[in-house]
Write a structure and sequence with these properties.
The chain is mostly helical and about 120 residues long. About 85% of the residues lie in helices and about 0% in strands.
Length: about 120
């Protein structure tokens, strides 16, 4: 925990601190993966997961064929196919983890909005 977090907790009233303890526990990676399938673009995330699996299977198949190839032409073709499929898997994984990061950032912004709303409720201007 950083010093800033400690200062914020000291400044909050007891009930606010209790509210923060509810949100302290970060979700696991598996829970964050499942959260992407509950959002507004869940069909797009499911489609990305589907294509990741397809390219992974095709990449593994190309690697197996690569090691069984006899001619130089076949070796080059299967190697290129394997590299392309694994590159596609890598790009889709990067995109998926960016989605997870976006959801985590949104969650933190909502926590901040909640704290601002509670603070505005206490300050009667």
């Amino acid at each position: 925990m950083s010093k800033l977090d400690d200062k914020i907790r000291e400044a909050l009233r007891k009930e606010d601190a209790e509210l923060l303890t509810e949100f302290d526990e970060e979700p696991s990676v598996f829970e964050m993966l499942l959260d992407t399938c509950r959002g507004r673009h869940r069909w797009l995330n499911a489609l990305g997961a589907f294509w990741t699996l397809v390219f992974l299977v095709l990449g593994i198949l190309a690697a197996v064929k690569f090691f069984g190839a006899e001619s130089t032409r076949d070796i080059v073709m299967w190697a290129a196919a394997c590299i392309l499929c694994m590159s596609a898997v890598s790009m889709l994984k990067v995109w998926y983890f960016l989605e997870i990061n976006k959801n985590a950032l949104t969650r933190e912004i909502k926590r901040l909005e909640l704290q601002i709303a509670r603070l505005a409720g206490r300050i009667k201007v």
